[in-house]
Amino acid sequence: MLTLIFLYAFFVSFTDKPADGAPALSERALEQRAKWNISTDDLDYPVNPAYLDSLRQMGVKIYHTSRWFNGATCEMSVEKSVEVEALDFVENVEMTRSSKSPALASRRYNAKWQNESTNCLLANTQTTFCSDDQLALYNLHPLHQAGFEGQGILMTICDGGFHNADTLSCFRQTLELGHFDLTDDTVPFYGDTGDHGTKCLSTISAITTDYYGAATQAQYYLMRSEEDATESPKEMDNLVAAFEKADSLGTNIFSVSLGYTEFDNAEWDLPKNALDGRSTRVSLAATIAARKGMLVCVAAGNEGDNNWHTMGTPSDADSILSVGAVDTNGLIGSFSSYGPSADGRVKPDVCAVGVSTALFSPYGFATYGNGTSFATPLLAGLAACLWSALPDENAMSIRERIIRSADHYSYPDMYRYGYGIPDAWKAYTMDLSQGAEITVIQKNTNTIKILHDGRIIILRNNKKYNLSGQLIK
Questions:
Q1: Residue 110's pLDDT is what?
Q2: Chain centroid to CA 119: how far?
Q3: Is omega for the bond preceding 23 within 30 degrees of 0, making it cis?
C-alpha cells in the first residue's frame, strides 16, 4: 500500500526589499507596460536573495517566492518555523499546509471541476462544428469571419493537470511557448495528474474536422498550480506564483478554473465574509495582475446547488471577469455559484457556456462537460479575439467592452447572471452601432469593410475610414 507523506508548508513574509536591482519583468512585459503607460513599482522587484540564502543555510526548502507579497513559500518543520520567525528580516510565518491527511480529495473534484458525458456529436446537419452553438451564444462567429482569432495575444491557462496536452493532434503545439509547474508534485507536467487543464485548453485552442476552439490563433503558456492529493492554502500561494510568472512573461489574458473555500484542515476554511476581494492573497494577486495590465478570467465556481452556494476565491477579486455557467440557450446552470461578493459587487461578472460544453478529452475525442471551469476559457477566448481586433486598447478597456455588451448590462443580476452573456460582435462594434445593423461585406488581413446604417465603413488598424480614405473621427 502506497503511503503519502504530506509535508508542512509555510509562507514566510520578509520585512523589506533591496533598494537596488531590476524589475523581474521580461522584455515583452516591459514593452506592454510602456504601451499601456503602466509604470513599474516596488511590486515588480524581487525579494532579497540574501534572505533566501539565509533560509537555505538553515535547511529550509524554498518552493517559490512572491515579489507582490514580499515573501516565500517554504517547506520546513514546525520547530524550524519557530526559528525562522525569530529572524530579524522575517515579519511573519504562516502555515499553509499541514501533515493532516487529505479529507476533501473526493469532494473537491465534484465541487470545483466537472461532470462529463461521452461523445460530442454534431447537433444537426446545419452545424459545421460541435462547438458552434457555444460560440454562437456570445456571437463570436462574426469576429472569426472577420479574421480575428486571437492573433498577437498571449494567454496563460493555469490549472491542475494537462495530461497529453503536448501530444494531442487537436492542438498546434507551436502555439505553446512554454509550461511551468508551481506545485511540488513529482509527476511530469503532462503526466496523469488530471486532465482538467487539457479540457479547458481545448475550448480555446483545439481544431479538428468537427471542433473549433474560441481563439485558435492565440499563443499561450500553461501553468500548473493545483496539487493532486491535497487541498490547502499552499495551493492559493501556488496560484499567486502563477499570476506573478504570467505578469513577468507579458501575458495579456490569464484564465484559471480553480477556486477555494474549504480545506483538508477545517481551521483554514474561509468564512463567507472573506470573499470580499481583499481577504486572501490570491484574490489580491488577481486584482494586482489586472492592474498590471492583464485581463484575468476566473471561474465563479460550481457550488450553486450545494450547501456552500456562493463563489470561492479568487473569483471574488476586483477588476477581473468572474464567469458563471449557462447552457447554449442562455439558461443558468443550477450548479453555477451565486453572487454577489461579500462587499456587494456584482458576481459573477458575466456568463458563458458551461452546461454541456463541447470540449476535447485527453484521449483524442470530443465530448461534453459541465462546469464554470469550461465557461471561463470560452470567455477568455472571446476576449482574445476581441483584443486581437482592438490591439491598441488595454485590458480594462477590453473588460469594459465585454461587460457593456452583455445582455443584462442595464439590469445586472446580483445573484446568478451578473451582467449576463456578452456579445463579441457588439463589443467590437459598439462605438459604431447605435442600434443599426452591421454587416461584414469584405475582409482582408488588416482591413474589414462593413455596411453600417446604409453606408460603407472601412475598419483598419482600429481606425475608421470612409470609402474616400478619410479618417472618421
A1: 34
A2: 27
A3: no
> How many helices (H) does the chain have, and how many strands (E)?
12, 20
User: What are the residue boundaries of the structural domains of the chain, listed by start?
Assistant: 9-97, 105-429, 434-465
Size of the chain, expressed as the number of residues it contains: 473
Which one is predicted more confidently, 291 or 471? 291
- Given a contact cutoff of 8 angstroms between Cβ atoms, the answer to whether 48 and 17 are in contact is yes
Beta bridge mates, 464: 459
Burial class (CB in 10 A: 0-12, 13-18, 19+), 435: exposed
Omega before 340 within 30 of 0, i.e. cis = yes
**Alpha-carbon distance 169 to 430, whole Å?**
37
Neighbouring residues of 187: CB distance < 8 A, sequence distance ≥ 6: 193, 228
| Pairwise CA distance, residues 347 & 168, whole Å | 35
Domain 105-429, CATH among 3.40.50.300, 3.40.50.200, 3.90.740.10, 3.30.70.100: 3.40.50.200
Which residues contact residue 84 at a Cβ distance below 8 angstroms, ignoring those fewer than 6 apart?
A: 10, 12, 55, 58, 60, 74, 76, 90, 93
Give the whole-angstrom CA distance, residue 58 versus residue 299.
39
Over the Cα atoms of the chain, what is R_g? 22
The answer to whether 9-97 and 105-429 have equal CATH topology is: no
Cell of 415: 445573484
CA distance 173 to 269: 39
Say if residues 417 and 426 touch (Cβ distance below 8 Å): no
How far is the CA of 322 from the CAs of 233, 381, 420, in angstroms? 20, 14, 11
d(CA 239, CA 386): 26
CA 411 – CA 460 distance, rounded (Å): 34
Region 426-454: what's the mean pLDDT?
62
422 in Cβ contact with 353 (< 8 Å): no
How many CA atoms lie less than 13 Å away from 117 in the CB half-sphere?
A: 9
Q: What is the mean pLDDT of residues 53-76?
A: 96
Architecture of domain 9-97: 2-Layer Sandwich (3.30)
Helix (H) or strand (E) holding 234: helix 233-249
C-alpha of 350 from chain center = 14
The C-alpha cell at 66 is: 512572491
**Tens digits of residue pLDDT in 115-156:** 444 455 544 444 577 888 999 999 999 899 888 999 999 999
Pick the closest to residue 367 from 114, 161, 140 (CA basis).
114
